Amino acid sequence: MSYSRLTLLLTLLLATSLSALAANLGQVKAAMQARQPAIEALWAEGSIGENNQGFLEARGTLSAAAQQLMQAENTDRRVVYQAIARSTQSTPQQVAVQRALQISQRAAKGLWLQDAQGQWYRK
Description:
Elements: H1 3-45, E1 48-50, E2 56-58, H2 64-88, H3 92-106, E3 112-114, E4 120-122
Parallel strand pairs: 1-3
Antiparallel strand pairs: 1-2, 3-4
Helix pairs in contact: 1-2, 2-3
């Protein structure tokens, strides 16, 4: 295979991958927006909080439905953090920790948050 054909093939594969990633991120964003009211209800109950790693965490025993909701949200957050990390030449963990700081700064009063030392507090 010639160099120009290989370059063209790699360019097409990259474009296809980026297009698929953009479509996937659109679906992830839509799913996150759709579940936001249910997440906010769990926040208001104090059933879940935002940990210092950028993810939701149970603050007690959750129903199966609430557990599934929290897991779906955290899965989608991982996808978003990975995409941001790729575009910023960072790591998903760095992105997640930064997001945890943003969440804590913008959080509504009453939301359970975890500080850098792992201690829970209510804003």
